[in-house]
Amino acid sequence: xxxxxxxxxxxxRAEIARxxxxxxxxxxxxxxxxxxxxxxHSFPEERKVWEQHMAKAGWLCVxxxxxxxxxxLSINEQVIFHxxxxxxxxxxxxxxxxxxxxxxxxxxxxxxxxxxxxxxGIANGTEYWCQGYSEPGAGSDLxxxxxxxxxxxxxxxxxGQKVWTSLAHESEWCFVIARTEPGSVGHKGLSFLLxxxxxxxxxxxxxxxxxxxxxxxxxxxxxxxTDAANIVGQPGEGWKIAMALLGFERGVSTLGQQMQFQNxxxxxxxxxxxxxxxxxxxxxxxxxxxxMGLRIMRYNSLRMLSGxxxxxxxxxxxxxxxxxxxxxxxxxxxxxxxLGPDSELVESGPxxxxxxxxxxxxxxxxxxxxxxxxxxxxxxxxxALGMPKEPKGR
Length: 394
Description:
The protein has helices at 7-23, 44-56, 75-87, 96-109, 112-123, 238-249, 253-275, 281-305, 320-339, 355-363, 373-384, and strands at residues 129-132, 148-152, 155-166, 173-179, 190-196, 202-207, 216-227, 231-232. By secondary structure, the chain is α+β, with helices and mostly antiparallel strands. The protein folds into 3 domains: 7-94, Acyl-CoA dehydrogenase/oxidase, N-terminal domain (Butyryl-Coa Dehydrogenase, subunit A, domain 1, Orthogonal Bundle), CATH 1.10.540.10; 129-238, Butyryl-CoA Dehydrogenase, subunit A, domain 2, CATH 2.40.110; 250-384, Butyryl-CoA Dehydrogenase, subunit A, domain 3 (Up-down Bundle), CATH 1.20.140. The strands form 2 sheets. The protein has a 4-stranded mixed sheet with strand order 1-4-5-8. This is Acyl-CoA dehydrogenase family protein. Its cofactor is FAD. Belongs to the acyl-CoA dehydrogenase family.
């Protein structure tokens, strides 16, 4: 990965910027800078219309191969796209789980029939996905999954519970890690199933967050079914495929995430200049530290993206979640300290949280979801550094 882009790539950047400027207006103007983490409840239907608008212009799933509805952009071009999208205030992707996780996994491991069935709906913005990994007793420890699936003639019969399922209430499909081998434990006996959400055997219950919204949910599977053909890979290969999917999660969209962080930092700096917080040397130093941390995050991401694109995690990729989660949690604290007393006030009814207030509250979860900081440190120690595994308690 080069730190500078070619003249042709910069022309591509200008093309994207022009398109976004000419389209993020009119009916879509209200969506700018909305729908990101902690704000997913904002304009859900309107953001789906926006994504379908993007799809018609060929700006959805830009990194996918052309034969599956993408643009086949190079890594450099994908980086540019995600950066410009966030810079322009492009709304949070309602379909990011399908575009960034389910789709690449199906492309890498799915059958041709699965690709023909599931990829078009993601690529044209008409079918949305959620992730059925975490359970009440299997959050960061995915190998402790207890949800079971049994093959009955031509269908999988699924029973169990998932939790912290983001956007389940907005999704038509869920990729579910389930135990398909009776008596199996740990990594063995797991399978990767594609399950329709609109059926009597699936119950979705929202979980209210600190922000007062319900972006994620509990999902109960009570004799839920999916076709026998809706298994990605072979029975028992679920762990391998699940780990590859987590590798895709650390793909080029991380650069877009960082541009969203930059937008938040820019807003904090603007407020600090307006209210005089820049006169506080401690706050000035924390703002400088945040700026430097974001630059480091970018360079580490570019190094991470320089490796293979098959979902396997390089050692550099294993530090990413721990780094950005800790940095972003600190940014939330900085935002509140820069706001001062205003951080505890809302302007008027209906007393909705401001963007920075919502961001601060949501960052409290950054070090928990997607693998807690403690789990991330274990991953770095064991997988990246080759240190002995943590002793298991008796």
